[in-house]
Sequence to fold (137 residues):
Amino acid sequence: MVCLMTTPTQLERRIDTIKREIIALGPLRPGTLTQQYNVCGNPNCRCKADPPQKHGPYYQLSYTWQRKSRTHFVREEELPQVRTEVGTYLRLRSLLDEWINASLEIARLDREKRRPSARKSAKPRPKRVKLPRSPAK
Ligand SMILES: [Zn+2]
Fold:
């Protein structure tokens, strides 16, 4: 098994790279694209045939942001742009997760380094004895 030791320096370098990547990100938006087919109200329409030829596809973008859920239609010509923006949003979220994970790992390594049991020459601290004050002259 290969043991890849990650040092705080390596983690900090990774965080610097993440920051640069975030700065370089283009337009973004949260959401999930879905495709759907509809039927209309016309009883003689092809969408009522057997087998039915439903209308569509229609594309919808749904997202929840600040506790509000929204869904709206996306025109076919807007699809490439919306797909790119949704992908960029996901990339941002994954970069943020990685940044936070690296920060937590740096903090963990730091705690480990400071733990007294990790020191080789750990000796119990001598108890502090309170000395009586020398009498004032
Ligand atoms: Zn129809």
In short: Residues 39-40, 42, 45, 47, 55 surround zinc ion (CB under 6 Å).
